[in-house]
Amino acid sequence: MSTPALRRVVRRETHSPRTVAMFVAVVLLILALAYVALEIVLSLAAQPALLVGPAAAAGWLVGLPTQPAGLVIAGSVVLALIGLVFVILAITPGRLSKHTLDAGDRAVVVDNGVIASALAQHLSEETGIARDAITVGVGHRSIDVTVRPGAGVPLEQSEVLALAESELQTYRLTRSIRTRVRIERAIEKDADL
Fold it and tell me: Is there a contact between 23 and 37 (Cβ–Cβ < 8 Å)?
């Protein structure tokens, strides 16, 4: 991926825009401003307030230092957490469940589900274990493989790990991924029961 245009296209395909978060933030801000405007209009029209009138809200803000310290601290913490969520949403990129493959001068973006399915099928063919007894989960930085061999089927974790890593090498993922393998053995029941 040598050209800037190609890198930009790949980034757009692998990262989600923050459109939904921004939409929610703008809608909440508009609703808050509409409520404040409604309370001001009701106050100017000498009508009773819906929740808190502008004069009562201003009086509460002026009297805030006289409020119990625990209440002020709790409110401050809640506002700080809401602000922190918005800052994190603004700074961090949203990742989609996709990976890029090294294909020279071409851009290849593959869904994590495709990688998981292909790896599970390969492990099934290599180990002789049924496909539905192998579960593969693909994340941004790791792949989790869970194998449930039948009772009495000899299978080593290191063997499955080597098979998985060698297959992943053939996919030529551009980002290095850690592979974890777990073998879940069925509990063998006594023949006497």
Answer: no
